[in-house]
Write a structure and sequence with these properties.
By secondary structure, the chain is of the alpha+beta class. It contains three helices and 13 strands. The strands form three sheets. Strands 5, 6, 7, 8, 9, 10 and 11 form a seven-stranded antiparallel sheet that branches. Strands 1-2-3 form a three-stranded antiparallel sheet, with no helix packed on it. The mean pLDDT is 95.
Length: 203
């Protein structure tokens, strides 16, 4: 925003391609038109790219976490990975966070936090966890592709359509660098890195 950008909240399902090749979408502040469009909706990207005629093998890795109070004045100073049993304990503002491994499931199926139930007793032997601080485990859904690389770049069949999704659970890390790569491709600059491994037509 400091550089002149503007943020709008709208409904991606209202997306339309005009006869002149521009894109439009309805937002809370009215109709917005743009020359270029980037589909970057994480695990919900398929709701848009399928409507535009694309079929990518997007899958979902779901993960769970629960916060606990520490017992007996215990302090956890850094994250601890129990690789044998597949969980992490991490100190957070809300308490000690227990995280699970990945669950492969459909995006919208009901949560199945089995891993929390299995690893909590094991984690309690490692660190004095107190009561649960959440009413139910949090669940996150991470979009991934078979080669574990995101799709970043131009859509094969639309002139001004771009894709940026499939980052697994590295979105915060890869977001800025993928944004730079897209910006350079969209403006005709020489990309700082080879975009070929991330092209959409590899599937």
């Amino acid at each position: 925003k400091r550089r002149g950008g503007r943020f709008f909240t709208g409904d991606a399902h209202s997306l339309q391609e005009a006869a002149d090749g521009r894109w439009s979408v309805d937002t809370h502040e009215g109709h917005v038109n743009a020359r270029d469009l980037v589909v970057s909706l994480g695990p919900w990207s398929d709701l848009i790219f399928r409507e535009l005629g694309y079929d990518f093998p997007l899958a979902f890795k779901r993960g769970y976490h629960m916060h606990y109070a520490p017992r007996e004045g215990a302090v956890l100073a850094h994250p601890v990975l129990d690789a044998d049993n597949g969980y992490v304990l991490a100190p957070m503002t809300r308490g000690i966070r227990l995280t699970t491994g990945a669950e492969f499931a459909r995006r919208d199926t009901p949560p199945t936090p089995v891993q929390i139930e299995q690893t909590e007793p094991i984690a309690r032997k490692l660190f004095p966890l107190g009561e649960r601080l959440d009413t139910k485990p949090w669940m996150g859904c991470r979009p991934c592709l078979p080669d574990m690389l995101p799709i970043v770049g131009k859509a094969p069949r639309h002139e001004r359509l771009w894709f940026d999704f499939g980052h697994q659970h590295h979105g915060f890390t890869l977001g800025p660098v993928c944004g730079r790569l897209l910006a350079e491709m969209m403006t005709g600059e020489t990309p700082f890195t080879d975009p070929a491994p991330y092209r959409a037509d590899r599937f």
